[in-house]
Amino acid sequence: HAGTGIALDVDGVTRVSTGIEFGTDTAAANQLDDYEEGTYTPTYAVAGGGSVTSNGTVTNVGSYTKVGRLCTVGISSYIVQTSGTVTSYTVTLPFTGATTGAQAGGGFGQETGQTGMGVMIKVANGSTTAVINKYDGGSVPANSYFSLAFTYQTA
Is the pTM above the cut of 0.70? Predict the structure, then answer.
């Protein structure tokens, strides 16, 4: 009841049809309108042409948390190049990247099979994949153990 000072206490699931507003803010852009957690199986390719296979499903897992249009992803994978010349890889995303702004997003990680090898991941506007490059600009190993975390805006 508005203005009565009575607190709402829900024991169970609460569903709203369009979003949750906080305080006196009624702007649609500020509504909490989407929250999702999930897992997915990332797939890889050699950037510029070539193929990659996962070396075991236990070490090829992706998880994400999506709040509104902001998606945070964690990936742990062991992949093996099967064709092409590796300079960088592409990896699938759980959601398509945003189509506006200078860049949808990105992050950093490590090729854990190589001591201290940092990698960058970049999500381009409107893309369904991200590009993984070695941090110093060199080639990523043909057999790679990736541990990545990144955030991007979804379409």
Answer: yes
